[in-house]
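Researcher: Predict the fold of Bifunctional salicylyl-CoA 5-hydroxylase/oxidoreductase.
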Amino acid sequence: MRVAVIGGGPGGLYAAVLLKRLDPTREITVWERNAPDDTFGFGVVLSDETLGGIEHADPEVYRALQAEFVRWDDIDIVHRGRTLTSGGHGFAALGRRRLLAVLHRRCRDLGIELRFRTEAPPAAELARAYDLVIAADGVHSATRTAHADAFRPRLTTHRCRYIWLAADFAFDAFRFEIAETEHGVAQLHAYPFAGPSSAGHPGARPSGTADGTLGASTVIVEMREEVWRSAGLDRCDERESAEWCAKVFTDALGGRSLRSNNSSWIAFRTVVNDRWSYGNTVLLGDAAHTAHFSIGSGTKLAVEDALALAACLQEQPDTASALAAYEEERRPVVASTQRAARASLAWFEELATYLDQPPHQFAFNLLTRSRRVTHDNLRLRDAGFVAAVEKEAGTPAATPPMFTPFRLGELTLRNRVVVSPMDMYSAQDGDGTPGDFHLVHLGARALGGAGLVMTEMVCVSPEGRITPGCTGLYAPEHETAWRRVTDFVHTSAPGTAIGVQLGHSGRKGSTRLMWEGIDQPLRDGNWPVVAPSELPYRAGVNQIPNALSEAELGTVREQFVRSAESAARAGFDLLELHCAHGYLLSGFLSPLTNQRTDAYGGDLAGRLRFPLEVFDAVRAVWPAGRPMTVRISATDWAEGGTTADDAVAIARAFAEHGADALDVSTGQVVPDERPDYGRSYQTPFADRIRNTLGVPVIAVGAISSWDDVNSLVLAGRADLCALARPHLYDPHWTLHAAAEQGYAGPGAPWPLPYQAGSRTPPTGRTDAPKPRLTLR
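Model: Structure tokens for Bifunctional salicylyl-CoA 5-hydroxylase/oxidoreductase follow.
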């Protein structure tokens, strides 16, 4: 096999080493347009997991790298003159030039041809002459650009500028520092990559000599684009930029200078490709994907790509099968890393919104920003640090954050768990009346310990139903039936609150039950649907709705009012107005579904007009002491739709009109949405609203563990967490979360008839004698 490698970075070089080591008969050539010691950046961070893969695949490379590593455990977070330290994290770093030198030497020892200062021929030309072409040509990959029709790349440029610099001394920990300048917030990310006292000693804090002159550290300075321009850095050269950064962070640097290496201010670009291979050409590392530097993943991902590609070429019968297996193996790992990196990137983009948090909460928020480090995980690393965060937050001793009370209006919830609204499509006889199913369904979840249990979307009129199985609150029998449910909750699960979500289906109505075909029109018995504009949910599939006139808007508003009055009489503790997921009120908010030219359309103020009129009318009849929330879709996940900035403005408007909290969901507004799914993927939108506006929020969306809830609450990203599917899997999810954490306090009391089951059942024999002696 003849192999061509385009790009002499760590990923391309390591792929060459592995392929040659696995089969010495392979002819491998690496093209690198720069000189051997030319490199961007200074230090490289590798995880223990990646190092384990290197050790297993090529012990010689591992031994050479191990001799160079600086290892440390601590992260220092400096904000407003105070330094907080969290330990137990475990990092390893070395200079990028040293890493390249190790790989160059290994390539030469194995007989790999290295062509420096030489532009590689085009990939198409190489593909004709070689059996395999590995395009490891970086974020600006010429190969990816030349074959964009095959790889189908999507590139997203983000809102911060950053610059790679170096300090000629070793920081004694990974350091985050915040500077509040006259132009705005700047942040420093710094870590040692050379230090004489720490190499090869896990757990050590790297340091230089007594005068602090030895060692070296990577220093990255980052800020929002508008801050960068205001500071005049867009007009500064390399030297001036380094001097500005050294002045702003002079305390961190001890007055020392910063050096550059062809350093320039960069806006980070996320690279995603629909395909990673084309014929016998395959993308690797930054050419295939990028992940923000704040989680230290670029070189790590490239090295892991190389390991997987080499293994797949060894295991599969032919090149095509190997490239398919490589992508299948790596894509989910990379997607997970990119989700974490985007969460981290977004956190730093919104850094200014967190500056007024208490110091320990700020530090905890920073450490858990990517969602990969959590409350429980951090407690294992540094229990003392987490205890200090909880003490500052006023969390009672031995109480997980999720079991602290929270007040909405005059309603105090005993914990932070909400059973999210979930459509059940099980109304009796198709007339909107909740029956035994709803009593058992909602009653079981109330007994399960959540602080607040929400109904499904309860419809305000027959034509406002989504399906014939949806419940309503527009007839006397509905009120009576719902009173049966609320009475059960208040009597049998005292301390649990129950809320009603009121809504109107809009253009998404008159469809089948979910399991018969979600969003598909009824086969017969359809009723006419209404919307802000005459736009069907799916053209050619769903009905064309009637665009509501001003008189009809008044009728709908009164339907909400009557349902709210009925909900109050039925005994609900909280009312939520459904302005999300493409239903009627949501349809007014999104520019993709509201194309009106009257006062109820146009700019955001016009699109907000009718939802706010409904809110005000409902608030006027809803009892003053009972809280009222609003669920919104914070993004449509579609071009031209509601943006995160719009969501903040929408939330502000509802808060100013008296909403006690915003329930922040996303999407389901248009069928061609492209959600960025992943664990807790919707929480950044709730986080931004909470910390920009200072209003309480309910976070929702793939929050699936009690560790997630503890993390979000303690970090101040959410006040309450709504979980849907976990409560379908386990109605007693909250009580089980308490038992698993060893908590038995007032935030999660077991119902008296269930107290005998409040301990986790044994899973097998535990009385076997322990081995006392091992014979070798």
